[in-house]
Amino acid sequence: AQSVSQHNHHVILSEAASLELGCNYSYGGTVNLFWYVQYPGQHLQLLLKYFSGDPLVKGIKGFEAEFIKSKFSFNLRKPSVQWSDTAEYFCAVNANDYKLSFGAGTTVTVRA
Amino acid sequence: NAGVTQTPKFRVLKTGQSMTLLCAQDMNHEYMYWYRQDPGMGLRLIHYSVGEGTTAKGEVPDGYNVSRLKKQNFLLGLESAAPSQTSVYFCASWGGTSLEQYFGPGTRLTVT
After folding, report:
1. Which of A48, A112, B11, B78 is least surrounded, with the fewest CB atoms within 10 Å of its CB?
2. Contact residues, chain A, for B99 at CB < 8 Å
3. What's the number of CA atoms in the CB half-sphere (13 Å) around residue A50?
């Protein structure tokens, strides 16, 4: 079974700072990749997804992620964060079956 | 179109009590999932279903049972609750095309 690692447990930054969250997975075959966000007290929402094609994927709210196949990575980025980006972020991997494997999550706190 | 709904939203149980969590989706999705979310552990798959009348074990199935008698509903049962089952439970569904899973709002369960 595939595993998903998120490098940072908790990230604290100021508004307008840039954000990068790391995600690595262990599966060697074809994968589909996702980033989900969970705002405080809410359910998971999809930020962006990668299935094929351009490895640089743009999502909602100014987020983007880059798939680097050789590094088994799918890092999430945002050039300038806002206070409203305070949330927990989850990387997830699907290995062409109908299940998702999630990373442990990264809590992002943005200070106003 | 309500998406994925869960009842109840909150519940407190005493050790040994039983309860059933209900998940309903109105998107005609074949696949449905139950996850638990614990701090620092991300989302872990408890059980899932690939269609009406089918169920299968996920990563952490012990202590839980599920049923999918109707396509739109997926029930998660705890026969004899234990404090280790204190968690937030999320239901999700997937239609099989976009590969994006849609999540419900969650049920916060505390077992004392």
Report:
1. A112
2. 32, 49, 51, 94
3. 25
